[in-house]
Amino acid sequence: MASLDLFAGENHEVTQFSEQAYLLHGHVASQADTILSHLRDVIKQSPLRQFVTPGGGKMSVRTSSCGDFGWITDKKGYRYTDTDPITKKPWPPMPETLKTLAEQAAAKCGFESFSPNACLINVYHPGAAMGLHQDKDESDFSQPIVSFSFGLPVTFLWGGLKRGGSPQKVTLQHGDVLVWGGPDRLRYHGVKKLANGQHPLTGNVRVNLTFRVR
Ligand SMILES: O=C(O)CCC(=O)C(=O)O
Ligand SMILES: [Mn+2]
């Protein structure tokens, strides 16, 4: 893992963990209070829920979305929708502050034209995990994924472009931002089971936001 000169002068450390995958340590930590309060508003409108995968299993993570599109799964498959299947209303708008922060993080990593129209909210309680998968329900893979993490730390798994092999392990802490795109856009990734813990801002959970161009 290398630190990049590209980011010299920034306060936060950056780790490049593959060709176009970057960990911006603590990058949104100072905005966490604001971001989490926006999320509370979103979740009041479109509640967290445990989706069922096409295979019939219930996901351990609790999910909602904001933006023009939200990611869903049910027996029919994985996809984006413009309305929340629970409320039957459009997904809550993506708060401008969140969109701007995600765009700025992408731009720092060389993705200047990123303008996300979907933000997936994942809330992990202890024991929740996400298996290795690709983010491939979007239509433009030239656009990166930008991911914010809050609350309890977790081990993020960074695999290859195909299944198999042993993934790299990257610890994600409160306020960390991941950006991946270009040749790394379709990498398999996931998170290990969340361990018990307490965080001053989130209690016993980890919150993850992924910003995408649907
Ligand atoms: O929780 C994370 O860090 C990753 C989430 C993820 O990969 C996804 O929602 O597709
Ligand atoms: Mn993913």
TrEMBL record:
One of its GO terms (molecular function) is oxidative RNA demethylase activity. One of its GO terms (cellular component) is cytoplasm. 2-oxoglutarate binds at residues 122-124, 206-212. Fe cation binds at residues 133, 135, 189. Gene3D superfamilies: Alpha-ketoglutarate-dependent dioxygenase AlkB-like. Its cofactor is Fe(2+). SUPFAM superfamilies: Clavaminate synthase-like (SSF51197). Keywords: Dioxygenase, Iron, Metal-binding, Oxidoreductase. InterPro entries: Alkb, AlkB-like, AlkB-like_sf, Oxoglu/Fe-dep_dioxygenase_dom. The keyword Isomerase does not apply. Binds 1 Fe(2+) ion per subunit. Residues 115-214 form the Fe2OG dioxygenase domain. Substrate binds at residues 71, 78-80, 137, 163. Signal peptide: none annotated. GO terms for biological process: oxidative RNA demethylation. This is Alpha-ketoglutarate-dependent dioxygenase. It comes from Idiomarina zobellii. The lineage of its organism: Bacteria, Pseudomonadati, Pseudomonadota, Gammaproteobacteria, Alteromonadales.
